[in-house]
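Subject: design request, 181 residues
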């Protein structure tokens, strides 16, 4: 019986899944665009990775001013019935109510893995990683923010991610909403 169970598990999809509490990472080079990744665990592959059209410097300014709400909207079309919300490829982006262009789903390539591996031991915080000497990251220093998020699935067409404050006080400083409209 155990052999059958192991055989059955090996044929399951290797697509990463997300639980109720996830690791969220925003990162980008100072003169580049922001990437957003959600992982179930810091060492797992991202279940959701997108590149926002928002420049990193603009998002840093918004975050310095207080609460930040990022809304990602995608089209609801009849021919896309099989897509799960986190698999949608193209998103309209709004930051604190202002339209910020489009975001695109990305595969986790070598450069993204390098960043996520460098941040693996960090459970919460924000900072800057210096530019590397090997020519990778020619855009300058890499800025990042990493925290635990609570994931709330409203329906098959809506999910929200709320950054969790470690001391439990106050509301979330950063909220990310995914909507299929």
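Subject: RE: design request

Done. Sequence follows.
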């Amino acid at each position: 019986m155990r052999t059958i169970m192991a055989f059955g598990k090996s044929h399951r999809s290797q697509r990463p899944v997300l639980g109720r509490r996830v690791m969220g990472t925003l990162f980008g080079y100072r003169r580049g665009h922001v990437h957003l990744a959600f992982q179930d665990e810091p060492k797992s592959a991202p279940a959701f990775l997108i590149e926002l059209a928002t420049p990193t410097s603009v998002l840093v300014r918004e975050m310095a001013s207080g609460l930040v709400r990022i809304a990602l909207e995608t089209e609801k079309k009849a021919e896309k019935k099989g897509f799960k919300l986190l698999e949608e490829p193209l998103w309209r982006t709004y930051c604190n109510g202002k339209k910020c262009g489009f975001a695109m789903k990305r595969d986790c390539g070598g450069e993204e893995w390098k960043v996520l591996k460098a941040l693996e031991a960090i459970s919460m915080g924000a900072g800057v990683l210096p530019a590397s000497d090997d020519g990778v990251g020619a855009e300058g220093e890499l800025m990042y923010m990493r925290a635990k998020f609570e994931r709330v699935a409203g329906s098959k067409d809506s999910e929200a991610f709320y950054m969790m404050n470690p001391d439990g006080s106050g509301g979330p400083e950063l909220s990310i909403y995914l909507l299929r409209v």
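The two ends are 45 Å apart (CA to CA).
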